[in-house]
Automatic annotation (TrEMBL):
This is MCUR1 regulator. It is found in: Mitochondrion membrane. Keywords: Coiled coil, Membrane, Mitochondrion, Transmembrane, Transmembrane helix. GO terms for biological process: calcium import into the mitochondrion; positive regulation of mitochondrial calcium ion concentration. GO terms for cellular component: mitochondrial inner membrane. InterPro entries: CCDC90-like. The lineage of its organism: Eukaryota, Metazoa, Chordata, Craniata, Vertebrata. It comes from the Eukaryota. Belongs to the CCDC90 family. Its main location: mitochondrion. The chain crosses the membrane at residues 160-179. It comes from Drymodes brunneopygia.
Length: 180
C-alpha cells in the first residue's frame, strides 16, 4: 500500500496552523487509517492485473469455444438448410414442369375440341344449306307443277267453255233456223 502524500509535511502544516504535534499526528494517523480503510474497500471491489488477465483469458477461451460451436452449428445447420432448399427447388421445378405439361395438354385439348366443334358446326351448316336447297328445289318443282296443272286446267276449262259456247251457239242457230 502506498500513500500518495507526505504525512510528515502534513503534520508540519498542521503544527504551523496552530495544532500541537500530538494533535497533528493523531489527525494524520486518522487520515491514514481512513485512507487505508477506503483503499481496502476499493481493492476488494477491484481486480488485479493478473486476475484481470486470467479472467480475460477465460472469457476469450469461452468465446473461442462458443465460436467453434457456432461455426460447427452454422455449418451443419446451413448445410442442412442448403440441402433442404435444394430439395425444395427440385420439387418446385418438377411441379412447375408438371403444371406446364398440364397447361400444354389442356391447351391442345381445347384447340382440338374447338377445331372439332368448328368442323361440326361447318358440317351442320352445310347440311342445313343442302336441306334448304333441296327444300327450295322441291318448292320450286311443286310450284312449277302447280302452275302447269293450273295452265292445263285453264286450257281444259277454255276447251269446255269453247265447246259449251259452240254447242250453245249451234243449238241457238238450230232453234233460229227452225223458227225462221
Amino acid at each position: 500500500k502506498r500513500l500518495y502524500f507526505d504525512t510528515h509535511a502534513l503534520v508540519c502544516l498542521l503544527e504551523e496552523n496552530g495544532f500541537t504535534t500530538q494533535q497533528s499526528e493523531v489527525i494524520v494517523s486518522a487520515l491514514v487509517k481512513i485512507m487505508n480503510t477506503n483503499m481496502d474497500m476499493i481493492y476488494k471491489d477491484m481486480v488485479t492485473k493478473v486476475q484481470q488477465e486470467i479472467a480475460l483469458q477465460q472469457v476469450m477461451s469461452h468465446i473461442g469455444g462458443v465460436k467453434k460451436d457456432m461455426i460447427i452449428l452454422e455449418k451443419s445447420e446451413f448445410s442442412a438448410l442448403r440441402s433442404e432448399n435444394e430439395k425444395i427447388k427440385l420439387e418446385l421445378q418438377q411441379i412447375k414442369k408438371q403444371v406446364m405439361d398440364e397447361i400444354t395438354k389442356v391447351r391442345s385439348d381445347n384447340k382440338l375440341n374447338l377445331s372439332l366443334e368448328k368442323s361440326r358446326v361447318k358440317e351442320l351448316h352445310a347440311q342445313q344449306d343442302r336441306a334448304l336447297t333441296q327444300t327450295d328445289r322441291k318448292i320450286d318443282t311443286e310450284v312449277a307443277d302447280l302452275k302447269t296443272m293450273l295452265e292445263s286446267h285453264k286450257l281444259d276449262n277454255i276447251k269446255y267453255l269453247a265447246g259449251s259456247v259452240f254447242t250453245c251457239l249451234t243449238v241457238a242457230l238450230g232453234f233460229y233456223r227452225l223458227w225462221m
